Structure prediction request, 250 residues.
Amino acid sequence: MPVQSPIAISNRTIDHIDDADPLEYHGHWEPVGVARVYNTGTSAMVKFAKRKEQPFITGGGLGDDKYAFEQLHFHWADTDESGCEHTVEGVKYSMEAHAVHFNTKYANFDEAKNKPDGLAVVAFFIHASGDKDCPEFQKISEGIRNVQKINTSASLDSDCLSWIGLQELCKHYYTYKGSLTTAPYFESVTWIIYRAPIFVSMGQVNVFRNLQSCPKDETKKIVNNFREIQKPEKDPEITFARNAKPKSKL
Ligand SMILES: [Zn+2]
Prediction:
């Protein structure tokens, strides 16, 4: 049974898997088409356009289904000590990025969003540490500077998500069945949450706190756009891909 998200993950109650099918990423930082970043008033969101096929993920706990990229957005706080939605052993990171994908057996995101197998969201923890910028994250933090006004957008290089590849993507992620963390909270999400954070500089996180949240009041900024930890009555079934099977060669 799916639960409401986010949840506090504790390694004590988790099923460790040593022969997980490889989770595959296709096209997330390929230099094709164009990317745009948007200030939606509640978050910063990245989308791709002008490409034949959206990036997609398959394999792992998703089986043979193909989940196409819809958008990536961020959650953050007014301090570096919180901002993420999920926690692992109680640890909080400065940000959590959500790469939202929909099952391509449905026509589009809107048709998929309320189906039990409709969505797969990949979560990346991002932590502010020191003042040395993370080069791979620089295209995002530069783009964020250009969308400080609400409802504006700016173009980005199409490889602006290359920082995702800093993770060893085939393993060391948690999976459980949960929900969207924003209204209407559909329980349609297969969560894939990488255990290790990606470290960026404090400045690279701080630019997010300058995004305007209200068209009438320029002093109002987007901060603390994360949902509180949910406490399901019954413990959710969480698996951890400790190791993955080697990718079979055709
Ligand atoms: Zn989110």
